[in-house]
Amino acid sequence: MITLTGNDLTVQEVERVVFGHEKVAISNESMEKLRKSRQTIEEMIKQKQVIYGINTGFGKLSDVVIDEDALDDLQQHLIDSHSCGVGEPFSESVSRAMVLLRANALAKGYSGIRPIIVERLIDLINDGIHPVIPRQGSLGASGDLAPLAHLAQVLTGKGEVFDQGKRISAIEALRREELEPVQLKAKEGLALINGTQAMTAVGVIAYLEAEKLALQSELIGAMTLEALRGIIDAFDEDLHQVRGYPEQQESARRIRLMLKDSQLVTRQGELRVQDAYSLRCMPQVIGATWQCLNYVREKLQIEINAATDNPLIFSDTEKVLSGGNFHGQPIALAMDFMKTGIAEIANMAERRVERMVNPQLNDLPPFLSTNPGLQSGVMIMQYTAASLVSENKTLAHPASVDSIPSSANQEDHVSMGTIAARHAYEIIQNVRRVLAIELICAMQAVEIRGKDKMATVTRRFLEDARRIVPRIDNDRVFSKDIEAMNHWLRDLSMEQMDKYVYPSSTRVRSER
């Protein structure tokens, strides 16, 4: 059971709730803060104070004062009018993460909502009711307005939800679980949609996949090093220690451990003095990606516990402050950083694929074919990898450098953070397919060298991967192999990866 306080939810707890379907509750302390915050709002309404979003219009219409008897209608109109998302819906995992993160942010007690709002969000999580939320339509400032409006619709019995992969009406799902739709009161609609939970939810899920990819790239790269009889001296501890980056040192050490009993790697001068950069510089490049991921994780950890709506209610001092905590720039920049950091894994992996298939760069059969000429072998796998890498270069263009004014120029700078997060996730899918291609090629090449000469770690990984993609003895439809390997890499957990990478008593990766 994860207890929400709004202050200490972790990335790993998000993972447990989203993918492990762990149940959620709200702390008693948070419930008291919610009641106190709501009381402050109601007192201000009685005193007829003019407060943005409570008894005024929104955005450029903030100067329009709303009659007291229309305050509840104002909130429902807000949710209806802002439900402008388009395109395919987010996955159920992203939707589930959005509900969790919104509940946690509201649990901080600065939003002026009634406790029933957070309780109902928690009901959605615990009952597996996942709102159907279109992916496109957020500017990433004033919050993720359109995506969160679609989420809020479900609380009121409108919209659609996923039910075991099928789309059904929200009211049908609520009735099935004996949950009453919520009638929104003053401030509650605005509190639900002012926030960065769409970009942050996508960001957390993307980060979790990216972290696993970085570790897989080291293991697959180690196998490629064996396939190409690479020089192990480039991973010597002394060399990496004098550079000074801990992430680089840890990456090099992991690769040394993976290859410690390999009979296929060589020493400098044995076959050649130096390897190409895509082999020799793996710790420097992948280590830099780990630095990027550490930065991203730090920003996500802050954001999932942040109060990001507007205005915020400070009950102890009876202040209601309008500001801009909904602006997604911190996450937009982090997502753009992650895009480039993770794309580099594929850039380097594709170059290693080229070195395995190009007969001018190795002593292996051309394109790893069993009958070169009659059969093309893995020739076109490299084409596919090159295409994915090139596509990533387009997706890696920073979304955060763009801004289009909205709401009659009242909201004249926006973050585009949700676009950055979505593109980061797309890049990650492309990177995994490139690694799947590298793994297929590395397995074929290393078996030509002699499987019995492999390191214990890489041989075990190969044996398990061979259950997914068999040895290439004849040309076949390789698209199926790439997708099968991609799905296998995706579905491996970090715990499973740890068992591959680390000897039983030696753990070198920093605790997440």
From TrEMBL:
One of its GO terms (biological process) is L-histidine catabolic process to glutamate and formate. It is found in: Cytoplasm. It catalyses: L-histidine = trans-urocanate + NH4(+). Keywords: Cytoplasm, Histidine metabolism, Lyase. There is a cross-link at A141-G143 (5-imidazolinone (Ala-Gly)). Pathway: Amino-acid degradation; L-histidine degradation into L-glutamate; N-formimidoyl-L-glutamate from L-histidine: step 1/3. GO terms for cellular component: cytoplasm. Its main location: cytoplasm. The modification 2,3-didehydroalanine (Ser) is found at S142. One of its GO terms (molecular function) is histidine ammonia-lyase activity. Its EC number is 4.3.1.3. It is an enzyme of class 4 (lyase). Contains an active site 4-methylidene-imidazol-5-one (MIO), which is formed autocatalytically by cyclization and dehydration of residues Ala-Ser-Gly. PROSITE patterns: PAL_HISTIDASE. Belongs to the PAL/histidase family. This is Histidine ammonia-lyase. It comes from Melghiribacillus thermohalophilus. The gene is hutH.
